[in-house]
Amino acid sequence: MKALLIGYGSIGRRHDEVLSTFSDIEETHIVTKQTLSERVTFKALENVENIQTYDYFLIASETKKHYEQLCWLNKQVSGKKIFCEKPLFEKHYDLPVINNQVYVGYVLRFHLVLQKIKSLLEGQKILTVNIACGSYLPNWRTNIDYRDSYSAKKAEGGGVLLDLSHELDYAAWLAGDLLEIKSYQTKLSDLEIDSDDLVTLVGKTNQKAIINLVVDYFSQSAHRLIRINTNGFTLEADLIKNKLIQTHVTGEKEVFAFETLQRNDMFQAMHHEILFNEQKHYVCTLEQGLRIMQTINTIQEQNNV
């Protein structure tokens, strides 16, 4: 099995590292302008030779390039598996008919805490979902100045809405698609960026659950917290500390313990499901990824972004 990796920034290197652990992946070629010794590379996607010989394509470039690259691949190959990093695009696009299996990189679906929440919520009436996710952008990538990162630049698809769209995805995955949304998207802090650093929203899903979500780039204390209320219990989750507490209507509490996740565990599980599992239980499909883009588009339109 041959893979073609498009983009070799920090996330591209991580995907490359993960693919190297699969014995079925005989070789991974890379589209990058970087010079990589002992690797087969191409300066541009259009320069790739014998593109039909690849079995798995991974789009890990800047968000603003995803649409063009996905459409180009879709014209060149059919019946292949294509992975696209999240979010699908930087804004809403109308896609042509897709001739391949496309999956989106919402890797948090493979977090053990979220998978446990998913199973606990089965058959339950969800009342409210409260999500808070924040961290300090200058601490994200220690190898570069945050002001030079794509996250800092609106024109390159940066901004907290797109960067932290994981939260939009797992909110919909757990509680249903967002139908009604009232949002606020802005640049609030003194970070030297021209992209948004805060998004808040309240929404209602097709399962009639109320979602309250806040994501930001400026929290000095990193956090990824979820609180879900049902008629029978409340769930409190910390995705950074791998903690989940279930409080029943009787007052009884259950604390669920999880193994500490290693750096690439979720990525390995995601690619394994895409490549080797006939039944797709967790991975984000193209249809689901497009629905998240519709939510993103609604937020952007409400805030004239």
TrEMBL record:
Q: What Gene3D superfamilies does the annotation carry?
A: Dihydrodipicolinate Reductase, domain 2, NAD(P)-binding Rossmann-like Domain
Which residues belong to any copy of the Gfo/Idh/MocA-like oxidoreductase N-terminal domain?
2-90
Q: Which SUPFAM superfamilies match?
A: Glyceraldehyde-3-phosphate dehydrogenase-like, C-terminal domain, NAD(P)-binding Rossmann-fold domains
Q: What are the residue boundaries of the GFO/IDH/MocA-like oxidoreductase domain, all occurrences included?
A: 115-222
Domain of life of the source: Bacteria
Output the Gene Ontology terms for molecular function.
nucleotide binding
- The name on file for this protein is Oxidoreductase
